[in-house]
Amino acid sequence: MILFIVMPLWAMLTKSVQNAQGEFVGLANFAHYFSSASLWHSLGNTFTVGLLVTTVVGVLAFGYAYALTRSCMPCKGLFQILGTAPILAPSLLPAISLIFLFGNQGIAKHLLGEQSVYGMMGIALGLIFWTFPHALMILTTAMRTSDARLYEAARALKTSPIKTFFLVTLPAAKYGLISTLIVVFTLVITDFGVPKVIGGSYNVLATDIFKQVVGQQNFAMGAVTSLILLFPALLAFTANRWVQSKQKSLFDTRSVPYQPEPHPVRDGLCLLYCSVMSIAVLAVLGMAVYGSLVTFWPWNKALTLNNYNFAEISTYGWLPYVNSLTMAGWTA
Length: 332
Prior knowledge:
Layout: H1 2-16, H2 28-34, H3 37-70, H4 76-84, H5 92-102, H6 120-143, H7 148-156, H8 161-190, H9 193-198, H10 205-215, H11 219-248, H12 264-293, E1 294-296, E2 300-303, H13 310-313, H14 319-331
Antiparallel strand pairs: 1-2
Helix pairs in contact: 1-11, 3-6, 3-8, 3-12, 5-6, 5-12, 6-8, 8-11, 10-11
């Protein structure tokens, strides 16, 4: 705990109150940060994207989780796998796929008309894809813990399906939904990969940290930006812990797991919705695979496996890949 959490935070806090020479300057760096219009702009962009993606993902994932847990549609197992598949991909993957699809030389660029995928649109689309499985897993778990006795009581009182949804389904899933929104918001505002690849000139706090530290070697301002980004993430983490404690109290040993009954119209709509969402997921993943096999995009689209011959196309060969697996193994 001290080595992996306290010490890095202490180092970042210490650096934020020092100048380039390592001298203590108090809150001067923070004052300089908040006096910069460009940094305020990045802060606004970060929260704008965070709120937008969180709202969209919350709605999309709730609908998908509802279909998996509240319908009798076929192929639930397949849709569960497809819905959570993006969690295995790094955030860079959807950004790269979107460039292949809608970039300046993208195969579907015409679908955007005069709009450019580079900027807020690309960041939002990439992060929606990347955070969707995280939201889906939380919501699916939350909705599967609903008590069937509540639905039996609603049927006994002849409550309409719409009222049952708002009086039983939503209240039972509210803590899971809140937890989902918090997790997604935290992931969005702290992600670096998508904004760096497809963000263009749309600056956010995560890319500002990179520019300050790597581009300008200004570790003090990088630490200041990191602390400012850490604050909302810490608040979100604290709120999520509280929500999780509330969620546990909703399902006890006397509760009866809910089992949906067949309903042709509802099941058909759920199947259609999950099919559309799964096609979108497969399109992004498939585009990434296709792009990796293209000889030289977009001039030579002949397929080849030479791109995977890291020993020839990279100075370090397979070493970065091995290092990544090694670090992942030790971290796990």
